[in-house]
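Subgroup meeting minutes
Present: P.N., E.W., G.H.
Scribe: E.W.

1. P.N. recapped why we're keeping a running log of single-chain structure predictions: easier to compare across weeks, and new members can see raw inputs and outputs side by side.
2. G.H. added today's entry (308 aa).
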Amino acid sequence: MGMRNQTQVMEFVFLGFSGIPNSHLYLFLPFRVIYLVTLLGNLMIFILIQVDSSLQNPMYYFLSHLSCLDICIFSITVPKILLNFLSQQQTITYNQCLAQMFFLISFTGTEAAVLAVMAYDRYAAISKHLPYSHIMSTKVCTILAFATWVWGSLDSALHTALSTTLSFCGVNQIHHIFCDVPLLVGIDIHINEMAIHISSIFVAGAPFLFTILSYCFILSSILKIRSTTGKRKAFSTCAFLLIVVIILFGTALVNKCLGTDNLISTMYCIITPMLNPLIYSLRNKEVNCAMKKVVGNSRKSKLHHTIS
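Output recorded in log:
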């Protein structure tokens, strides 16, 4: 029997900002600015990788997927939040809630898998025992990228399918600003939490463990390099990625431990996608050089057009 035959709940009410008087007046502008900065930043990184030949390698290929995922994750949550601010009614329909949850889990699961692949790519690049050009060929990168999106979709489909079995019996208040599995489990009267946690550990936990293992091998390979210059160069090639991994998995782990904490969840799904482009551009010399080159070429083109 379907969910709608079991309950009269047709929409959910978000209570994440209920403790802040007139929150729509104070938070609309900051959220809108963050939204624009995140979109423009990630879009800039994505386009830069596509147009600059110096960034046509496996690491930046997967980085372009990461930027695309950040845009998707952000676009799943913030537009609805902004719309609620304008309407002064923090609600979402049942179907919209499930759709938001499905895509949010899918994109975050895919991002975790992409980070795992990028960690392995850095290990293959640093290790002298692996034929890097053969292991991370164009064909292999395409297959791995496709696999990460499938992985995230399977994780999301499993969680969403389990969530459709939950019964709310008129309880429709969510103490958050967007829909997520732990939130719905928290207001469910049936014990379905164990199955969801098992699937989360199995499907979403695997990329995390693989990433940690890859970085252990990376560290081992770096320590075997004799020259200090070689060690510094090897570490610099994966330093920015390590920062992203720490931020993403760190906030995700804290969010998992604290349950439905608004601040941590906001950082995980909203602040992190905004920080990633800043990390890529400020901590990565190759991206900085490519950006200066593109900007320089653009200025020369405009100057030539003006003279003509």
